[in-house]
């Protein structure tokens, strides 16, 4: 669908915005919100502070959505003791200021307070909070360029207060917000449908993989007891081995502070993000460019046959693996990824990766995963190295891999993931065009109603 443009434009003076409609202005956020502040963290030594019913938002709960409840609540007593704690009303925008979540957004659906890492934009003045939400969502990369700090980016309240965005008249803000709510809702529904399909296909595919790497493809093969309860019987001629005995090396990479965008060509140095292995298929586009002030490490470049395993992620994603099919110049592994190189006379890299994705491999990984919260858990090298798994002769491994790689579910999952990526790109492009005035959607709500 194409949308009309505004009749006339002017230069905004902001490189990331470009031209804006002549009736729009630029404004600092401090001019359009009465209160921009943050909260604090009550002492964990006093349980009474956390026995109330007042929602207390942390940055881990900012997921670009409305917030109705929180993992922890605080008491009125905590409010009385800690003057930095304030109750913000529904419609307050929240921006994460510190660490890996910097730039994440949310808005309150109930009265709530926050910790010190959330910047609250409360009591809007002649602006629609949902329009500002979409504007900040579009401006995330520009906001992160203002960040400072060592290993993780940080922004502060002053930088948020002085941040400038395009502001149309209030009726246009309301029209744009309504348009984006509706159109993004449609896109999100399509994405959710594809994600449900992927979950069903992945469950079926894991069953196929699990059977193939523990039972083989010959239903008439004589079997023997593996000695491992969660593996059970395996074909005779397969040898139970620890992963460490079929490896040449295991190592992890480097995670310097990088730019917040992927590289545009192989001539740039970049560091992989842990999400590059989430689907079981290596995704080299999941990377961040290394700053020009830092030198790349040639020894950490991804090479053909590297088995890449996430060592830190959510419980569902930690231990996910994928294999690089070719060399990737100047693309380095990060410190949240293990790189395994197998001994080819014992085990093919793709076969090891499939076992790690099987129910037997996931059983070991999920039991071993540890961490302070479910949002981020870790596994050590020992979890992988000491894992026992059935190893068939290499020729049988090749036969199994050929069967698994031709599997219909794998192709369908790939197609669904491609659809999702394109949908997210469409969503981001639509938001950007609407909140910077590149398209005129003022009459779209009327047209939709008609």
From TrEMBL:
Residues 21-182 form the Type I restriction modification DNA specificity domain. Keywords: DNA-binding, Restriction system. The keyword DNA-binding applies. SUPFAM superfamilies: DNA methylase specificity domain. It comes from the Bacteria. Coiled coil: none annotated. Gene3D superfamilies: Bipartite methylase S protein, DNA methylase specificity domains. GO terms for biological process: DNA restriction-modification system. One of its GO terms (molecular function) is DNA binding. Signal peptide: none annotated. Belongs to the type-I restriction system S methylase family. This is Type I restriction modification DNA specificity domain protein.
